[in-house]
Amino acid sequence: MTNLVENFYIREATKEDVPTILQFIRELAKHEGLLEEVKASEDSLTEHLFGENPRAQVIFGCIEDEPIAFALFFYNFSTFEGKPGVYLEDLYVKPAHRGKGIGKIILSYLAHLTLQIGGRRLEWCVHTWNTKAQAFYKTIGAKPQNRIILNRLDGNELTDLASTFRKLPIGKA
User: Of these residues, 75, 87, 109, 137, which one is catalytic?
Assistant: First the structure.
């Protein structure tokens, strides 16, 4: 990482960055061939990232005030460890800036953040087809968790399961 980032820095996103965040999300989705699946809007991002009860955070990797990378993450908790952690939902570096160590810098920042909160794990998923990313993650010591399969409920299945919930009183019955 020689003169990789003379003018590179990481900054936290602000409410004013919502259009840029959405632009990065769309660019990532296009890269993954999933642009038609993006339902995020400026309003939904504003509410969930900067509203009364934020659910995730965004950082940018910038060169001379221009965001060239972004990461969206949130805090999780390991019951086995009894400690918090950080879950990286998305990391995207613009194509012109790849291969310069920027992704590694962002991951190292998130690893540092994980330790700062007393956390024990920094976790993320990677697409099975993205062998280049998998190879990169191995070079930094990441261990694929092949014993775990990500499960997801969304759309009608999520609505159907939720409709079977019978509200129970909280506390003693």
Answer: 137
Angle in degrees, CA 126, 130, 132, rounded to 5 = 110
Give catalytic status of residue 109 as yes or no: no
pLDDT digits (tens, 9 = 90+) for 40-87: 999 999 999 999 999 999 999 999 999 999 999 999 999 999 999 999
The per-residue pLDDT of the chain, averaged, comes to 93
Strands 57-63 and 66-78: antiparallel
DSSP labels for 113-161? Answer: HHHHTT--EEEE---TT-HHHHHHHHHTT----TT-------HHHHHHH
Q: Which of 19, 18, 49, 22 is nearest to 35 (CA)?
A: 22
State the Cα–Cα distance between residues 125 and 115, nearest whole angstrom: 20
Determine the angle formed by the axes of helices 42-50 and 18-31, rounding to 10 degrees. Answer: 110
